[in-house]
Amino acid sequence: MKFNKYILAIVSSAVIISSCTSRFEELNTNSTGFTNEQLEQDFNHVRGLFGPMINNVYTYDPAWQTQLQQNLIGDVYSGYMMPPTPFASNINNMNYALVDGWNNFPWSIAYTQVMSNALRVKQRAETEYPQFYAWSLIIKVEAMHRLTDIYGPIVYSAFGTEDALIPYDSQEAVYMKFFEELDIAVDELTTRVNNGETSAFGDTDFTLYSGNYSQWVKFANSLRLRLAVRISKVNPGLAKTEAEKAVSHPIGVMTSNTDNAVVNSASFSHPLITINSGWNDIRMGAPMESILVGYEDPRVSTYFEPSEVVAGEYKGIRNGIDIAAKADYVTFSPLGEVINTNQITWMTAAEVYFLRAEGVLRGWDMQGTASDLYESGVRTSFAQHGAANVDTYLADDTKVPAPYVDPNNATNNVDADSPYLGTATVMWDDALDNEAKLEKIITQKWIAMFPDGQEAWSEFRRTGYPKLFPVVINNSGGLISTEEFIRRINFVRSEYDGNPEGVQTGVNHLNGPDNGGTRLWWDTGNANF
Question: pTM for this structure?
Answer without folding.
Answer: 0.93
